[in-house]
Amino acid sequence: MIKASVRRVGNSLGITIPKSILDNYHLEEGDQLYLVETQDGMMVTPYDPKFSAWVKAYESSTKRYRNTLRELAK
Hints:
- It is a single chain.
- With 74 residues, the protein is α+β, with helices and mostly antiparallel strands.
- It has one domain (6-72).
- The protein contains three helices and four strands; from the N terminus they run ββαββαα.
- The strands form two sheets. The protein has a two-stranded antiparallel sheet with strand order 1-2. A two-stranded antiparallel sheet has the order 3-4.
- β1 (6-9) and β2 (12-15) form a beta hairpin.
């Protein structure tokens, strides 16, 4: 487990992310992170959970309408 401290950044608060985590997840300055509340606490992720839901919906519709989409692509 790695600790991070909440620090003042101007009029806001922020956390500093250790270099090892930045390197593991290929994060750079300006990248967006999402804070997701879970039953176990808070999760910080570079992946947009709304986009994941969209991808699941897309995958289910492409399976269902595979033949129709194949015909439309001709």
